[in-house]
Write a structure and sequence with these properties.
By secondary structure, this protein is an alpha/beta fold. It has 9 helices and 13 strands. Strand 10, helix 5 and strand 11 form a beta-alpha-beta unit.
């Protein structure tokens, strides 16, 4: 069999293979079998083989954890990405790991300039801007978040800055750019199961729950208003996932025993960043072109399971 390099026809990539098979309806050129299989990944004009081919995406909080995992998945699906992180070392390591299809930007998500700069870098480096994935956020526990009777004002304000103000700023920058360019676009925001399904024994951070609940209301209001502009805005809401933020819970044996029953899918386990990648690719792709204002819970069964203490 003779094989050649990939080439493009429309939005689909092909590879030629010349050979013969003798046991499928007689002799048949293998190249036609291969091309037919690849073509099956295109449905209603959406390429399901490279779902993000030609997309240029900014990921706020994209140098570690959920965002970095998504960046790898986006690139694998044909996208170019700009990842934003606060730590200069993680920015360097992310850009080296992601290769020529990525740029890394150091910045604080709660700084009004950060998302604006990242979007401009996306356009200058890759020629366009098609989507924003806002992952950045975090626990305000060290600032005083906790149960209401212990919650400090600083804990409340810091938690909202981390999880809501930063998201508002990135969404605002993205919407303004889409409107300026006169184009459609996709925004994906990060919430949490704790915004609607509390766990009062092990996860008692009331400011965090309030901020993530606000993400839902904010996103739905934006989705309703900008639908006329063909700008889609949706939400992913994970349960406990292995990230730097979840280190406290992930190293506590009692909490992990609870999590195994609260997140019983796949044998009962902590989530992994890659568990969210498929959903993120969907929302950033044209496959979601008729979807807005929705929340997808990637929670291992958290919402529908009692959990055993």
């Amino acid at each position: 069999m003779l094989s050649g390099n990939l080439w493009r026809m429309g939005s689909i990539k092909y590879q030629y293979s010349i050979g013969r098979v003798s046991n499928i309806g007689g002799n048949l050129n293998f190249s036609y079998i291969f091309l037919y299989i690849i073509d099956m990944f295109s449905i209603n004009g959406v390429n399901f083989y490279f779902m993000l081919e030609g997309k240029n995406i900014v990921i706020i909080g994209g140098t570690t954890g959920l965002g970095f995992s998504a960046a790898k998945a986006f690139i694998k699906n044909g996208a170019k990405v700009v990842v934003v992180g606060r730590n200069p070392e993680s920015c360097i390591s992310a850009e080296l790991a992601l290769g020529e299809s990525a740029r890394a930007v150091k910045g604080d998500a709660s700084d009004p300039k950060t998302a604006v700069i990242a979007i401009e870098i996306c356009i200058s480096a890759f020629g366009d801007f098609d989507g924003l994935y806002h992952v950045a956020g975090g626990s305000g526990r060290k600032f005083g978040d906790g149960p209401l009777h212990e919650l400090s004002l600083e804990g409340w304000q810091k938690t909202f800055d981390l999880n809501l103000t930063s998201l508002m700023l990135s969404n605002q920058a993205a919407v303004r750019k889409f409107l300026e360019l006169g184009k459609s676009g996709s925004i994906l925001n990060m919430s949490s199961v704790l915004s609607f399904s509390p766990s009062p024994q092990y996860f008692v951070t009331h400011a965090y729950a309030a901020a993530k609940s606000a993400v839902t209301g904010f996103t739905k209001a934006l989705a309703a208003y900008y639908a006329k502009d063909n700008i889609r805005i949706n939400i992913l809401a994970p349960a406990l996932v292995e990230t730097p933020m979840s280190a406290r819970a992930s190293t506590d044996e009692k909490i992990m025993n609870f999590v195994k029953t609260k997140q019983p899918l796949d044998g009962g386990r902590n989530g992994k960043p890659e568990d969210l990648d498929g959903a993120a690719v969907y929302f950033m792709s044209d496959a979601s072109k008729f979807t807005t204002g929705q929340t997808l819970y990637v929670d291992g069964g958290w919402e529908v399971s009692e959990g055993q203490y």
